[in-house]
Amino acid sequence: MKIILSRKGIDSGALSGKMASPILPCGCLCSIPIPYRCGISYSDVHFGTRSFQQIIRELNPRWSNRLAHLDPDLRRDAVTSRPSGWRPAFGQIGAAAGHLINQGVGVGDLFVFFGWFRRTIEQNGKLTLIRRMCMDAT
């Protein structure tokens, strides 16, 4: 069995969004997909009652990207209109897909996803990043 470590979601990189994905007040990890020039609109992808566009704008009002590379696409309820027969999928294409093929990755191998996350709170009906975590020394 092979174990594949795969970074997902926006992060501190210039091409990847320059922000962390949120840990929502409920404790859920909300991995925001990276910007992509010909992907799905952030407004068409949802986590609960909020679109990713709404979540991102609440956390980073300067955000200007409109399209996302939805990888992995694992939650049926993330997008409201799914084609008949939709199945969860990883989004490797091009060189990334070729690398997995060249390494003999297949059925029975394990993908471990990781990313950069920050806790959020809700204030006045909007999400806000918790800037600093204070540790109680007692």
Q: Please give the count of helices.
A: 2
Strand order of the largest sheet: 2-8-9
Oligomeric state, counting identical vs distinct chains: single chain
Which bin fits the share of residues in helices? 10-25%
What is the element string, with H for helices and E for strands?
A: EEEEEHEHEEE
Mean pLDDT: 88
Low-confidence stretches: none
- The count of domains is 1
Structural class of the secondary structure composition?
Answer: alpha/beta
CA gyration radius, whole angstroms: 17 Å
Short description:
The protein contains two helices and nine strands; from the N terminus they run βββββαβαβββ.
Describe this structure in words.
The protein contains two helices and nine strands, in the order E-E-E-E-E-H-E-H-E-E-E. It is of the alpha/beta class and about 140 residues long. The protein has one domain. The strands form four sheets. A three-stranded mixed β-sheet has the order 2-8-9. The N and C termini lie far apart (about 45 Å). The mean pLDDT is about 90.
Could you outline the blueprint of secondary structure elements for this entry?
Elements (H helix, E strand, L loop, with lengths): L2 E5 L13 E3 L11 E7 L4 E2 L2 E2 H8 L7 E2 L25 H9 L7 E5 L2 E7 L2 E4 L9
Parallel strand pairs: 1-7, 2-8
Antiparallel strand pairs: 3-6, 4-5, 8-9
